[in-house]
Design brief:
Blueprint lengths: L2 E5 L4 E7 L8 E12 L9 E5 L8 E4 L8 E9 L5 E2 L6 E5 L10 E2 L5 E2 L27 E4 L7 E6 L4 E3 L7 E3 L3 E4 L4 E4 L6 E6 L2 E10 L5 E11 L10 E9 L2 E8 L13 E6 L13 E17 L2 E11 L1 H5 L3 E2 L2 E5 L8 E2 L4 H12 L8 E2 L12 E4 L2 E2 H10 L5 E6 L3 E6 L14 E5 L4 E8 L5 E10 L5 E3 L2 E3 L2 E6 L9 E10 L2 H15 L3 E9 L14 E6 L19 E17 L2 E12 L7 E2 L13 H8 L1
Parallel strand pairs: 6-7, 11-19, 26-27, 28-32, 33-41, 35-39
Antiparallel strand pairs: 1-22, 2-3, 2-8, 3-6, 4-5, 4-8, 9-10, 12-17, 13-14, 15-18, 16-17, 18-19, 20-21, 20-42, 21-24, 22-23, 23-24, 25-30, 26-29, 31-32, 34-40, 35-38, 36-37, 38-44, 40-43, 41-42, 42-43
Helix pairs in contact: 2-3
């Protein structure tokens, strides 16, 4: 591995000054004059605006451009008085700097005095018959970022793009989503060499430097969505990447990647602003120009930094460590707002939907409450979330990532919002919970033989830890039942291991699961009970980075096969592997990868430690028949019915 790091020094689209005597907060627009750099036509939604006491500074706040400017007015995200991200201290003649820098921001809405809710400051749900409820925008999937060194002969990089996984809400057929049929690529200074700018798959060449490639998709009703992809071409003769750095920490899970980078050269804040884009790639081999981008190691942003200064007799020692996070890491640091979603045949309120399926709700939270989908794919994979209907659902406040992931977890079988290390959001199954008969649909993404791993450790415990699991589920349906005039949804209930409680000390009860049948709930909860009482605890497998398949990531939640041969040296003192016979091959799920970097005189050695969970399954839970007088679960339904009347 030969990692290279690029930090974005964003170019300026517009530099001007505030032309406002007073400002009333919260505000979402700034009037300007005195343009010194660029033009108002250069400013696009999603760019970053700095507000400072001098040109290029952000000591008076930082905010995103939320919409196309109008005349001499820049429309920004709804802001309170302050100087932190998402806040502004607007003083007359303050300096405005709009940079070509796209990030993950929260979209702040509000409720007007008449009770109407607006998204992202001023987006109304729309008129009846043509609302965002009836016709939500599509999703542009443009792929992940790319960084590589230019060809020494052509002085160009060649990159392929595939937007074929973009999707729209299809109200013309029984399938909820279908492929978008209108594509528009914006290659900036790139040249399309294969295909046309309206094709889903194109190949383009780029000269040295950095740019954001733009993809806009449009559905058959004129709704559009735009995504931005970072593309960097390194020129060794004029290298703008970071030469001096060391990776000091790297932790990757299915929920995202966070890493620490010790920078050994000056990276002034005036050139590399707080929160700027970071791209890490392996330059040891020819880069992967395909949409897979397997040479890309990380795409994300600077979140925090740690700096030290130590005067010594021989000089002053300085160090700065950057903590980098991906799109999931940014979502974990954004607010989530209490939300309710209710089925309506037609409606003009944001809490109504004509798409009463979990997939719509998850997309709704990400699309309307953040800019994450403007800089990241949302890949559906083998997800069946569009088949899980509801009449009313609610979600609690917290951080936005957990809010979305928690809703996905409540589906039977469990789904997860995951994030690939290359910065790509995905909705995937949990293989260890899903039906055993369907597990063949989950791909095997990595295999380890005896020759591949350095060490393998695991815990073993035959005694159960949980003596009973009781689960409540609600039928995935839009059907309504009224009892004494109150909208009520009767739950299903099951328990594992059965009528006789098991050993152990823990009792666990889960509620508000969304299930299509009682049988589905029983099967999944039986597997969950088996997971809670698995004999084999977490496995830790150490190996060299070179043994990992290209593009491997826990985010795919695919099977990882581990083979332990019938070698006497492989057999522990107890004579078996976790209660299984020797000479075995068993499947696991990878939940975490930790990287270790040894910067020696002979070169860089990278080892990885994988935390694995062995595949388990168990007998189905048994159905618990609810008596008529037993309490019923309204699942927020009375609130929804009251608000919709």
């Amino acid at each position: 591995m030969r990692p290279r790091l690029f930090l974005l020094n964003p170019s300026v689209a517009l530099a001007a000054q505030v032309n406002m005597g007073t400002a009333t907060y919260p505000l979402d627009a700034i009037t300007f004059d005195t343009i010194t750099t660029g033009a108002i036509a250069n400013v696009e939604p999603g760019m970053t605006m700095l507000l400072g006491s001098a040109p290029g500074l952000d000591d008076r706040g930082r905010q995103r451009v939320r919409a196309t400017p109008s005349g001499s007015v820049i429309k920004v995200g709804r802001s309170s008085l302050g100087t932190r991200d998402g806040e502004l201290n607007v003083l007359d003649n303050s300096y405005i700097t709009v940079t070509r820098d796209y990030r993950v921001w929260a979209k702040i809405g509000f409720i007007q005095a008449n009770g109407e809710e607006l998204k992202d400051s001023d987006i109304a749900v729309g008129p009846i018959g043509n609302t965002y409820v009836d016709h939500p925008p599509p999703k542009a999937n443009a792929g992940v970022g790319y960084a590589g060194t230019i060809d020494p002969i052509t002085h160009l990089i060649t990159v392929q793009f595939d937007a074929g996984t973009s999707w729209r809400w299809d109200d013309g057929s029984s399938s909820l989503t279908s492929q978008v049929n209108a594509f528009f690529w914006g290659m900036r200074d790139g040249t399309i060499t294969v295909g046309a700018y309206t094709d889903p798959v194109v190949t383009a060449t780029f000269p040295a430097g950095f740019r954001w490639v733009q993809l806009e998709v449009v559905d058959d009703r004129g709704r559009s969505h735009i995504m931005h992809v970072p593309i960097y071409a390194r020129d060794p003769a004029n290298d703008t990447s970071i030469e001096g750095f060391q990776i000091t920490g790297w932790n990757e899970t299915e929920y995202g990647t966070e890493l620490d980078v010790l920078v050994l050269e000056d990276i002034p804040r005036s050139s590399y602003p707080d929160g700027t884009l970071a791209m890490l790639w392996d330059d040891a081999d020819p880069p992967d120009t395909s949409p897979a981008r397997n040479h890309m190691l990380f795409v994300g942003w600077i979140q925090t930094e740690d700096t030290g200064i130590a005067p010594q007799r021989t000089g002053t020692l300085r160090d700065t460590t950057l903590h980098l996070v991906d799109v999931a890491g940014r979502l974990k640091r954004l607010p989530a707002f209490t939300q309710i979603m209710t089925f309506a045949v037609a409606g003009n309120h944001w809490y109504w939907t004509v798409w009463p399926v979990v997939l719509y709700y998850l997309w709704y939270l990400l699309h309307w409450h953040s800019t994450a989908l403007e800089v990241s794919d949302l890949r559906l994979g083998g997800s069946t979330l569009s088949f899980f209907e509801f009449y009313t659902l609610s979600s609690d406040a917290g951080n936005l990532f957990d809010q979305v992931n928690s809703l996905a977890n409540h589906v039977t079988p469990d789904h997860h919002l995951t994030c690939h290390r290359k910065g790509q959001l995905m909705l995937v199954y949990d293989p260890n919970i899903m039906f055993t008969g369907d597990r063949h649909l989950v791909p095997t993404v990595q295999s380890f033989s005896d020759d591949d791993w350095i060490s393998l450790r695991y815990g073993y415990e035959r005694s159960p830890r949980t003596f009973q699991l009781v689960s409540w589920g609600l039928k995935a349906t839009t059907e309504r039942e009224f009892i004494d005039g109150v909208l009520t949804i009767r739950p299903w209930k099951c328990k594992a291991p059965g009528d006789a409680q098991g050993q152990g000390i823990a009792y666990l009860e889960t509620s508000e699961r969304l299930t299509r049948t009682q049988t589905d709930l029983n099967i999944v909860e039986g597997n969950r009970y088996a997971r809670l009482n698995a004999r084999m605890g977490p496995l830790t497998l150490e190996t060299l980075h070179s043994k990992l398949n290209a593009g491997f990531s826990p985010a795919t939640m695919g099977w990882v096969t581990v083979f332990v041969g019938n070698n006497p040296l492989n057999i522990p003192q107890r004579g078996d592997i976790g209660g299984r016979p020797a000479l075995l091959s068993f499947r696991t799920i990878c939940h975490q990868v930790s990287y270790s970097f040894d910067y020696g005189r002979t070169g860089l050695v990278v080892t990885v430690t994988l935390t694995l969970e062995a595949e388990v399954s168990g007998p189905a839970a048994i159905t618990l028949v609810l008596e008529p007088e037993a309490p019923v679960s309204s699942f927020s339904a009375p609130m929804a019915e009251k608000r919709s009347n």
